[in-house]
Specification:
Length: 324
Amino acid sequence: MELSIAALASNLLAPTILFFVLGLVAAFARSDLSIPDGAAKVMSVYLLLAIGFKGGAAVASSGVNGQLIASLFAGIVLSFVLPFLAYALLRAMTRLDGLNAAAVAGHYGSISIVTFVTAVSLLEARGLESEGYLVAVAAVMEVPAIMSALWIAARSGGVAAFDSSLMRHILGNGSIVLLVGSFVIGAATGQDGLDDLHPFIVVPFTGVLALFLLDMGLSAGRSLLENRKDISGGLLAFGCIMPVIASVFGLAAGALIGLSTGGIFLMMVLSASASYIAVPAAMKLALPEAKSGIYLSLALGVTFPFNLTLGMPLYFLMASWVTP
């Protein structure tokens, strides 16, 4: 299949990305534009259900194979290892103490499901294929990163509150439950189920994503404004450098497994993204002394916009270099 790098690089002009930029601009201009909390929650549920179901349906068509198992294993390893790299970079590039550096590092082994959904949407809009089971890889990349962050925090002298209630909170996270559950339902019902839900989870998907990214732009911009005193130049640089470095690990894993260009691209996006939903909630419980304004603003206000605008074209270009 002929792959158009220029087409994907033009994602800056995609309506979804432009709505995100609109949200950023509105936030920086201190506009009172807002999306009701209830509506934002409904859109989040819709996107998770749709992407999970479509991924499960894709697995039903292709079947379970060694490549799927290898991808899941790679995702777990990446999620566990990347926080250690992030911690080393943070200690070298910033003045963060061990506890706060560990809390930030945990976000950079986990994933941003919205970044992943946007990447899938961009591939689909341009007719590029990818392995549907990578949705499952996204689901398994939450917990290992949190475990790594807590281990690093303990080693650095911090007090990590790890108990059964925290584990229940992590495993019972609504986003993960919905993503995995819809994936399983999609896999069980296959193409017939996808045909039944096509008017609901396929036709309106891009429009809902555009509105949701508008809300994400507003949230990212306002988070940066509120916590700008805590975000140093070193942290800003880390927020842009770490995803690029992490994407190389995803590139290597995807190439070794033998994923398609689209699949490698998505593996890179998963590796490069940073959680701003599941991990912040876990850190508030496990590391209450860490400054949430730092890790949340960095993941949502710096890395998320970087990946959506500059990162994705770069990752796709790199993925195209290692595939025929």
